[in-house]
Amino acid sequence: MNYKILLVFIALLSLVNCKSVIVGQIYDHNGIVRKVYDKVVETSGIPLIKREQEVYFEYPLGDQKIKGIAIKDLENGLAEPSINRGGLGFNFVNIKLKSETWFGI
Fold first, then answer.
1. Which positions carry the signal peptide feature in this UniProt record (predicted)?
2. Where are the domains of the chain?
3. In this structure, which of 11, 66, 96, 100 has its CB flanked by the most CB atoms within 10 Å?
């Protein structure tokens, strides 16, 4: 099998109003790491309520594995991202985003 295709995978999520998080390898100088998923998530704030949203990605071929994940804060917000299922070494990831009270994601 082609190990470049089998082992090299990256999920890059661009999320609005969250802390930036990088897990695993998201760049290499050989150029074999590639972005395969990109999503911007945005929700408005509700007074006295914390907003939650989950972002799910699954690589369509089961033999591909996630090698790196980047959650990028576009506006220096206070929301907290967490990987609650899958992630590095799996072919899927579920990321939970939780905002501060009164603020959106």
1. 1-18
2. 2-98
3. 11
Cβ proximity of 37 and 91 under 8 Å = no
Is there a contact between 73 and 15 (Cβ–Cβ < 8 Å)?
yes
Q: Supply the pTM of this predicted model.
A: 0.70
DSSP 16: S
* Token pair recorded at residue 74: 């576009």
**pLDDT tens-place string over residues 3-50:** 444 334 333 333 333 467 777 777 777 766 777 888 888 888 888 888
Residue-by-residue DSSP string for 36-78: ----EE----BTTB--EEEEEEE-SSTT----EEEEEESS---
Residues with Cβ within 8 Å of residue 36, at least 6 apart in sequence: 9, 10, 11, 59
| Sheet-wide strand order for 40-41 | 21-24, 68-73, 10-15, 40-41
Q: How far are the Cα atoms of 7, 9, 29 from residue 73, in angstroms, in the given order?
A: 27, 21, 24
